[in-house]
Structure formats: C-alpha cells, structure tokens
Amino acid sequence: MQITAAELAQMLDGSVEGDPSAQVDRPSKIEEGGAGTITFLANPKYEAHAYTTDATILLVSKDFEPSGPVQPTLIRVADVYASIAFLLNKFGEQQKPRLTGISPQSSIHPEARIGADVAIGPFVVVEAGAVIGDHCQLHAQVYVGAQAKVGAHSVLYPGVKIHHDCEVGQHCTLLANAVIGSDGFGFAPQQDGSYQKIAQLGAVILEDAVEIGANTVIDRATMGATRIRQGVKLDNLIQIAHNVEIGENTVIAAQAGIAGSTKLGKNCRIGGQAGFVGHIEVADGTMIQAQSGVAGAIKQPDQAFYGSPAIAYGQYLKSYAVFKRLPDLYQKIRQLEKKLRDLAKS
Q1: At residue 95, does pLDDT exceed 80?
Q2: How many Cα atoms are found within 13 Å in the side-chain-facing hemisphere of 65?
Q3: Average pLDDT estimate for 137-161
Q4: Fewest CB within 10 angstroms: 69, 88, 242, 247, which?
Q5: What is the pTM of this model?
Q6: What is the rounded distance in angstroms from the CA atom of residue 159 to the CA atom of residue 180?
C-alpha cells in the first residue's frame, strides 16, 4: 500500500508538518525506521529515537514538542495508539493472503451449502449439512464437520477444525490449527479404578466478531453449548473446557485455562497462564494478572486479582513485599527468641 503523508493525515484526521507528498508503503519500529516507512511515538521512553530515526513519516500526538531537529515528516493526531492501530489494520489487509475461488483439491459434500463469493483452499473438507456463509475464506486443510455453520465474512486459517454441530458467527477469525468442538474432558471413575468416558453431546457456539488464536482449543459441551460471546478475543494456546461461557468483549492471553462450566463476565481481561477452577462465576470487568490461579467465585465487578490462589491485586503486592523478606524476618525472630531465652536465664 503506497500512500502519502497528506492522504494519511486526511485518513487519521491529523495535520502534516513537513512534506505532504512523502510516501510510505509499510510500518516500522521507531528504533529501526527505514526509508519508505511510517513509525510512531506514543511512549515518552522512546523519544530519543525520534531524533535519530530515518523513517519517512513519524506519527506523533498533537501536543508533542520536539527538543531537537526531527528528520521525518510529522503527522500530528489526537490519539497515537488508536491511529497506529488503524494503520496497522490497513497495512495488514494488504499483506494477508486472500484466497479466491474453490480449489479442485478440496472436498465439499454435495449436501453442504456454500454461500456467495466463498474461497476454499486445497485439502479443505466440508461435510454433509455444513453451511458456509457468504464471503468466507477457508484456507488449506480446514475441516468443517457435519451440520456445522460458519457465518458470513469469517476467515479460517490453515488447519482449523470445526467439529460437527458447532457454530461460528459472522466476521470471526480463527487462526491456524484452532480446534472448535473437540470432546469435553468427561470421565466417570469406575470401581476397578478405570474411567468410563462420558458422551459429550453438546456443541460450541462462537458469536459474531470473535477471534481465536492459533492452537487454541474450545471443547464442546456435555449438554447444551460452550458459548463464546460477541467480540471475545482469545490468544494462542488457550484451553476452554466444556460448558464454559465467556462474556462479551473479554480478552484472554496465551496459555490460560478455563475449567468446565465456569462463566466469565463481559469485558474481563485475563493474563497469560492464568487458570480458573470449574463451576464458578467471575464478575464483569474482572482483571486477572498473568500466572494467577482463580480458585473461587468473583462477585464484585471491575476488580483486579493476582497470585495463586488469586487475591486482590493491591493486597498481593503488599503481601509480596513481606514474603520476599521472609528469610530475613525469620532470622530476626530466631535472634529475638534467643535474646528472650538469655533474659529468662539471667
């Protein structure tokens, strides 16, 4: 995408300082720059790079006051992060592979329904009764099981598996090797010490505008549905167990795990490697620090938690300030005990 500073400023409702005809075709980090790139300054920690970068265009806030000469053309905007996010999406649309047509190497059951302007790559399998909405893209080796549904404008990247009877909403993105609708982890202990598998008869429902990261797995419900609400964003390598419900616009970072029948509220933010026990409810707006373990229900909305088992974020920080000094404190206690014994003898 080749674009001028003037065009970018108009797009971002910004103003140009420098050459309005300066052209860029890709973004760059401010410390790397490069001719023909646009970079940005949002964090004051990186301001020194603004005076050394050889990027062609530098995106800055409207109130930025340089303390030295700046080589790139400046575009001043109200919100640098929002503007760069918008631009990255624009550049990303140009770079992402876009399929066209239906590969002759795909296998589409005659009883499947394929919408208009659908692109299907090689070695894709679409089973009987499956429905693929308009303008979808199914990249190589995608599997869509019997009676499954994929909503319009959704993109399934290579190796994604949608098992039978599961539903993917509109404008969803599923990254490579995500698995939707694998069996939930259900086994009944037997008297001889073995385990009998419990049939998992439910489904998974992803609502609209959901993004699922690479190698993330969402298990089908035992009965009913595992449900991922509208706008949820899941990172890579996440495990969502059977009958879990994740509320609207909740985001979860990599390697987190949610045990069965737990319900997360909307607008929660969950750090990487966090874990949740099963059968609990977590209030709207909850924030969980990375590597925390949530062992009980959280009823108060908009609270932050840290630790394992997780406690209130501020309380954890105060506790950490103490327990990292435990060896010294223990030694002082031993010394005080000795002094008390000596006093008792005298």
Answers
A1: no
A2: 1
A3: 98
A4: 69
A5: 0.83
A6: 11
Same domain, 121 and 42: no
Q: What are the b/e assignments for 204-243, b being 16+ CB within 10 Å?
A: bbbbbbbbbbbebbbbbbbeebbbbbbbbbbbbbbbbbbb
188 and 218 inside one domain: yes
Residue 8 structural domain = 3-95
Q: Break the chain down into helix, strand, coil percent, rounded to 5.
A: 20, 30, 55
Rounded Cα gap, residues 341 and 23, in angstroms: 81
pLDDT tens, 237-248?
A: 999 999 999 999
Residue 242 known to be catalytic:
yes
Torsion of CA 124, 126, 132, 135, to 10 degrees: 20
Contacts (Cβ under 8 Å, ≥6 apart) of 336: none
Q: Which residue in the block uniquely carries the two structure tokens 């630790």?
A: 307
Gyration radius (Cα) of the chain, Å: 27
Domain count for the chain, please give it. 2
97: pLDDT strictly greater than 90: no
- Residue range 269-281: mean pLDDT, rounded: 98
Considering 139, 153, 163, 242, which one is annotated as catalytic? Answer: 242
The answer to whether residues 140 and 236 belong to one domain is yes
Domain at 91, CATH number: 3.40.1390.10
pLDDT for 91:
86
